[in-house]
Automatic annotation (TrEMBL):
Compartments, as annotated in UniProt: Peroxisome
InterPro entries: NAD(P)-bd_dom_sf, Peroxisomal_t2-enoyl-CoA_red, SDR_fam
Physiological role: Participates in chain elongation of fatty acids. Catalyzes the reduction of trans-2-enoyl-CoAs of varying chain lengths from 6:1 to 16:1, having maximum activity with 10:1 CoA. Has no 2,4-dienoyl-CoA reductase activity.
Catalytic activity: (2E)-octenoyl-CoA + NADPH + H(+) = octanoyl-CoA + NADP(+); (2E)-hexenoyl-CoA + NADPH + H(+) = hexanoyl-CoA + NADP(+); (2E)-dodecenoyl-CoA + NADPH + H(+) = dodecanoyl-CoA + NADP(+); a (2E)-enoyl-CoA + NADPH + H(+) = a 2,3-saturated acyl-CoA + NADP(+)
Pathway, per record: Lipid metabolism
GO BP field: fatty acid biosynthetic process
EC number per UniProt: 1.3.1.38
Keyword tags: Fatty acid biosynthesis, Fatty acid metabolism, Lipid biosynthesis, Lipid metabolism, NADP, Oxidoreductase, Peroxisome, Phosphoprotein
Species of provenance: Dyadobacter fermentans (strain ATCC 700827 / DSM 18053 / CIP 107007 / KCTC 52180 / NS114)
Record-level Gene Ontology MF annotations: trans-2-enoyl-CoA reductase (NADPH) activity
Enzyme class name: oxidoreductase
This protein's name: Peroxisomal trans-2-enoyl-CoA reductase
Amino acid sequence: MTHTEGMLRDGALENKTIIVTGGGTGLGKSMAGYFLRLGANVVICSRKADVLANTADELRQSTGGRITFVACDVRKTEEVEQVIARAIETFGRVDGLVNNSAGNFISPTERLSYKAVDTIVDIVLRGTYYFTLALGKYWIENQIKGTVLNIVTTYATTGSGWVVPSAMAKAGVLTMTKSLAFEWARHGIRLNAIAPGPFPTKGAWDRLFPEELARKFSFENRIPLARTGDHQELANLAAYLISNFSAYMTGEVITLDGGEVLSAGQFNFLKEVTDDQWDAIEDQIKSATRTGKTPE
Ligand SMILES: CCC/C=C/C(=O)SCCNC(=O)CCNC(=O)[C@H](O)C(C)(C)COP(=O)([O-])OP(=O)([O-])OC[C@H]1O[C@@H](n2cnc3c(N)ncnc32)[C@H](O)[C@@H]1OP(=O)([O-])[O-]
Ligand SMILES: NC(=O)C1=CN([C@@H]2O[C@H](COP(=O)(O)OP(=O)(O)OC[C@H]3O[C@@H](n4cnc5c(N)ncnc54)[C@H](OP(=O)(O)O)[C@@H]3O)[C@@H](O)[C@H]2O)C=CC1
């Protein structure tokens, strides 16, 4: 067994219809593909119909699963409602939602126009709450115990410079996840989130790790587990969180980042200390303890 293999048993998502926003590319496409392999019906949506059509064809062929697509800008409520209506028309009902669509790019914040900030916040936060609200109403009215999975980021909790609109919006999504998990638990609706570290995708790499930066700040040095994530690792966790296996979990955010977020640990700079230096340090500490004095 390796981390690049599917984890759940065959049929784990049978009889479930799952909407994956931004499912035409990157992590959304990988999650959609794995959900299909596990027996789910999948609806992917995003702005680019041609990209969605190609992905739907590819995944239909590679998995033999049932997939359809609807072009949709998640910032437009009528289009969000159309996706849900089409999903119900095609598959009879909707059971799960993965809020995965996002917009993001690195920039010094003072260089951003109002519109640039609005663009990111609207896709990430507004898009997520539009979809969640529309489906939540449908689930409550039809007594369906739906499940939401929100793809956030580790900096939704820590904050981060140079991606401030994304950080603000993802933090809002995280707070919505926890707030609604409590409120809608009485309807059997669950909401959880994944905070991924770096997983190579064209969308993220073009906008966040342009070649020059990627070379300078290599992931191998920054990430304790010294690598980026594999899409299947994220798809495994996503499938678990959207499946009935996680039935007792709600309002949770799971970090999947090779330990990247832990780098703030106060003493982590000790990573640079060699074994010989440790011998000397140990002697100094023991001597100070014996004499009660700290050496000059
Ligand atoms: C690993 C870490 C975590 C990863 C998290 C992720 O989310 S990864 C996921 C990553 N995946 C994605 O992000 C996928 C989707 N992303 C996209 O489609 C685009 O990147 C988008 C988000 C800009 C939206 O495009 P659109 O066609 O809807 O919008 P538009 O072109 O009309 O621009 C709107 C405003 O933004 C301005 N502006 C734009 N770029 C820059 C810049 N570099 N500098 C400064 N400003 C910039 C632009 O000038 C305009 O403002 P203005 O001048 O009118 O006042
Ligand atoms: N890759 C990584 O390292 C990390 C990614 N993430 C998160 O993972 C998720 C997927 O990102 P990733 O796969 O890397 O990047 P992608 O760029 O491949 O995915 C973003 C998707 O969002 C869609 N999208 C953008 N704007 C809209 C819109 N207005 N309406 C509907 N859909 C829209 C895009 O499709 P289209 O252009 O057709 O609209 C695209 O399919 C995002 O939520 C991201 O924040 C979080 C941490 C790390």
